[in-house]
Specification:
about 40% helix, 13 helices, seven-stranded mixed β-sheet, about 425 residues, alpha/beta, five-stranded antiparallel β-sheet
Length: about 425
């Protein structure tokens, strides 16, 4: 039997250290919300591959759709000789996107590509250059998306210079004392001192910050951004890469605000584990680039499109939007009890559906992040057979992203392990 340690040694010899791995656990198989490693150890997965397998590992519908597609063909390039699944999926995405405006879709392969293409589309539509993002935001690891990202380590360190004409504003964060009014005032000041609004092509915002710490944008903030963009002719981009596909108790998280973005990115949970991403937006904006200006060799993979259609079918048939709210309620009840017992160490718990966070602090003080406890929690959970993820500017937030299909018994088992790890460490 080959061990995890042996595979880790081989990995460190063969793969660049920059593409690190959180856990030295080498998965042999996975099903729904469970994984088994090469040593036969079982793990409850509270990460879902970073919100990718929202429908669980190896959902039967996704597996069957992919197998059927593989019997037909694996690739032709949607820009050369397309196929019906790409059209059907685009129609479905246009229908599901927030708002009543006519929509169109393009396909790419990764979330970062989706963000990059939003920038291209917004610049083509407006003829402007400037871009505004938010502190703590994460939009990808390409040069442009690193520039938009509002967190230096580890994403931007050593990788500059970055594209010019990109500006960052505070993101509203009630736990840390940043209000919607603070954020909007900062944007107005930015227009006075950094860039004129008529030079701004787009503002990009996550309705819930992912890597930044699972902070939730208040509806009034999203509405104020929409009004600001309308006033100045700025394209509003909603980054739904981590929040989409039923994760937050809506099909797309932007729906909570009642706002219709001009452009929206999707990826992660879109295709049940197969690489696929898209930009969905208002048709007249999406059509600004000339034919050939958008695309990519693997964008809209037939296998990915088949998987995505199956994911949407599973979400609808199994009522996973509603299920996400149930999962969130179970987590919040369990984590709430833990917080009440340890208010000095758990500063805040928060969620939208099954996108859940537990922020760890010292002395009950939001300004004293406890990254050490967070790191210890992740490590201790692995030892007990539970996969946890961390996030946040200070690395002090445990984020929970379970499959929406997770059985209640396994969810409860995992939450018991969370409480055990926490009690042992504090």
């Amino acid at each position: 039997m080959t061990t995890n340690a042996e595979w880790q040694a081989r990995k460190e010899h063969a793969m660049a250290r920059g593409q690190g791995n959180m856990a030295p656990i080498y998965v042999e198989r996975a099903e729904n919300a469970e994984m088994w490693d090469v040593e036969g150890n079982r793990y409850i997965d509270f990460g879902a591959g970073i919100a990718v397998t929202n429908t669980g590992h190896m959902h039967p519908k996704v597996k069957q759709a992919v197998l059927e597609q593989m019997d037909k063909f694996s690739h032709t390039c949607v820009m050369v000789t397309p196929y019906d699944s790409a059209v059907m999926l685009a129609e479905k995405l246009n229908e599901l996107a927030p708002g009543d405006s006519p929509k169109k879709t393009i396909y790419v392969t990764t979330g970062a590509e989706a963000v990059e293409n939003c920038v291209k589309i917004a610049r083509a539509h407006t003829g402007r250059r400037g871009l505004i993002a938010f502190n703590g935001g994460f939009h990808g690891r390409t040069n442009m998306t690193m520039a938009l990202t509002g967190k230096v380590a580890p994403y931007k360190s050593k990788f500059g210079p970055f594209p010019a004409e990109i500006y960052h504003a505070p993101y509203p964060n009630s736990y840390h004392g940043v209000t919607t009014e603070d954020s909007m005032k900062a944007l107005e000041m930015m227009f006075k001192v950094d860039i004129a609004p008529e030079d701004v092509a787009a503002i990009i915002v996550e309705p819930i910050q992912g890597e930044g710490g699972f902070y939730i944008a208040p509806p009034e903030f999203m509405q104020a951004l929409r009004a600001l963009c309308d006033k100045h002719g700025i394209v509003m981009i909603s980054d739904e890469i981590q929040t989409g596909f039923a994760r937050t108790g809506k099909f797309f998280c932007t729906e909570y605000s009642g706002v219709e973005p001009d452009l929206m990115t999707t990826a992660k949970g879109m295709a049940g584990g197969f690489p696929l991403a898209a930009v969905v937006g208002k048709a007249h904006i999406m059509d600004a680039p000339m034919p050939g200006g958008l695309g990519g060799t693997y964008g809209g993979s037939p296998i990915g499109c088949a998987a995505a259609l199956a994911v949407i079918e599973a979400i609808e048939e199994e009522k996973l939007v509603e299920r996400a709210n149930h999962v969130g309620a179970v987590f919040m009840e369990s984590l709430g009890a833990l917080q009440r017992a340890h208010p000095d160490r758990i500063g805040e718990i928060r969620n939208r559906g099954a996108m859940i966070a537990m922020e760890l602090v010292k002395n009950g003080n939001p300004d004293e992040p406890d990254a050490e406890l967070c790191k210890a929690m992740v490590a201790a959970a692995q030892e007990k057979g539970l996969i946890l993820l961390s996030c946040g500017l200070y690395g002090n937030v445990i984020r929970f992203l379970p499959a929406l299909t997770i059985p209640d018994a396994i969810m409860t088992e995992g939450l018991t392990l969370v409480a055990e790890c926490f009690e042992e460490l504090v």
